[in-house]
Specification:
Layout lengths: L19 H14 L12 E3 L11 H8 L4 E3 L25 E6 L6 H10 L1 E12 L9 H6 L2 E6 L19 E7 L7 E4 L1
Parallel strand pairs: 1-2, 1-3, 3-4, 5-7
Antiparallel strand pairs: 4-6, 5-6
């Protein structure tokens, strides 16, 4: 996902390459501050349902998470993705034999709420759902009912703006981003971290 309000054309399938440093910064802060444990030592079931990757670039979340010792299932709706399961519309997957411990992704912005709600159905109790979104996802009257019902546990705000075009690494996006951490069954007020 990338901000498109400055004349930028939205990519097909809302596909943008998440910079590895952004994920690495989040994982470091998450490991340091997290009360909700999910580490590779526990061999959790992890899914990236919009894993991306293409002929030029590797998948972002699976690549970084696997370097950290996690095993990640990768799905994508695109036929040219590097995901292990392609042509898979995450929102159409109805049931799993075994729920995931964690679902983490940069979802298409126009269905981010649906992705989050569906991911929460596909993780175990106390399972984590982590979504990269624009910080302004917190706002808008349209999303107010969502924030009143979803189990948001923490928001990790990135102080450095990312760019989503590896061919132009110095060109950053026009807005701030955060990793939103939801925990199935969580009822406490969310924590805010700036990284």
């Amino acid at each position: 996902m990338s901000s498109v309000n400055r004349g930028t054309v939205r990519n097909a399938d809302d596909y943008y390459i998440t910079p590895h440093w952004l994920i690495e910064d989040f994982l470091a802060a998450f490991a340091e501050n997290n009360m909700l444990v999910c580490s590779p030592d526990e061999s959790p079931r992890v899914l990236d349902p919009s894993a991306g990757g293409c002929d030029k670039y590797e998948m972002s979340y699976p690549t970084v998470l696997e370097k950290e010792g996690f095993t990640v299932d990768s799905w994508d709706i695109r036929a040219d993705s590097r995901a292990s399961v392609i042509n898979c519309d995450f929102l159409q997957v109805k049931s799993l034999k075994k729920p995931y411990d964690m679902i983490i992704t940069n979802p298409p912005f126009n269905v981010a709420q649906e992705f989050t709600e569906h991911a929460l159905e596909m993780v175990k109790e106390s399972g984590l759902v982590i979504m990269l979104q624009r910080l302004n996802w917190l706002g808008s009257q349209k999303r107010k009912p969502m924030w009143q019902k979803l189990p948001l546990a923490a928001v990790y705000v990135h102080s450095k703006r990312p760019g989503f075009d590896p061919a132009k690494p110095s060109k950053t996006d026009s807005t701030e981003y955060a990793h939103f951490v939801f925990c199935k069954g969580h009822e406490l007020a969310p924590e805010l971290f700036v990284i």
